[in-house]
Amino acid sequence: MLIKSISLTNFRNHTKYNLECNPTTTLILGENGCGKTSVLEAIYILTQGKSFRATDPDIIKRDAEFYRIELRYDNGEKIIATYNQKKKSFEVMDKKTSRLPSKQRYPIILFLPSDLNLISGSPSSRRKYFDRFFCILNPVYASALSKYEKALSQRNKLLKENFVNPTTIFPWNILLAKNGALISKVRREYISIINNSLTTTYRSIADNQDEVELNYQTELQENITENQYLSILEQNYEKDKIIGHTSFGVHKDDFEFIFNQKLADGSASRGETRSIILAIKFIEAAIIKFKLKKAPIILLDDVFSELDNERRAALINNFKNHQVIITSVEKFTTKD
Length: 336
Description:
Blueprint: E1 3-11, E2 14-20, E3 25-29, H1 36-48, H2 56-59, E4 67-73, E5 78-83, E6 88-92, E7 95-97, E8 108-111, H3 123-137, H4 139-159, H5 166-206, E9 212-217, H6 226-235, H7 237-243, E10 254-259, E11 262-263, H8 264-267, H9 270-292, E12 297-301, H10 309-318, E13 324-328
Parallel strand pairs: 3-13, 8-12, 12-13
Antiparallel strand pairs: 1-2, 1-4, 4-5, 5-6, 6-7, 9-10, 10-11
Helix pairs in contact: 3-4, 4-5, 5-6, 5-9, 9-10
């Protein structure tokens, strides 16, 4: 399934905007700040159900009463999202829902300039990156992550209150244990799948014999049960009450890139780092296509200016059988 068009009303700095998409590659040209990324954000909302960078109050155009975005596929299907400063709704085939139905979600590979700093970035940025990928692959994971984050927020809030006690905090411990154990299990599974082809894919880009591995860093033992998770939360109660937040859990996990048996951050060059990130993107697309039986739509947000000609060529060649929507400040070429 391919995107035919996307229309925006009162979305970010767009009062009215319409983009007709090509079945292969669509290039959105414009200066920085003109709203190119907002178009990709709108596509993401209508394919994933939420933004990759903000909440609805931040998205609606200043002084506007609502925003509306509409996406049309080449098969005639239409999806509309509206937000009226109070709530957001989706409309699919004349049926309105508060959330985008799972069957209407379409896989996306999103490539942002910040992704090129993934290796040297913070653990939270890496968690966010891989969580976004895993949520597209696995709706159960997406649901567990949402429940975990809400429970974590409530537990941390209670830990700062004077009236908190083990009884009041117990229901949130249960939710953290149930969903945290599942999150850890799925993360291990997907990291293992990524590692199966990471070095091979990297070498196909870099044309050398270097080795790359993604290392899952976590406090949780492998195959931890809900009861074991719950027991640790209860043991940490007094400490958590003193520090005012939850000290144990999957919210502290990290994903380390290992390059030739060393941390890539500090040992890999700029070019090697970019090749690693490209390899991750190519593997994402391959896993999604294999698992979901759909070729993901590729959204590239002004990343070509950060890549040399060889890596641009690799990116174009690898995604040649996908619909690609690119933003850029200038026309680009893969040749000198």
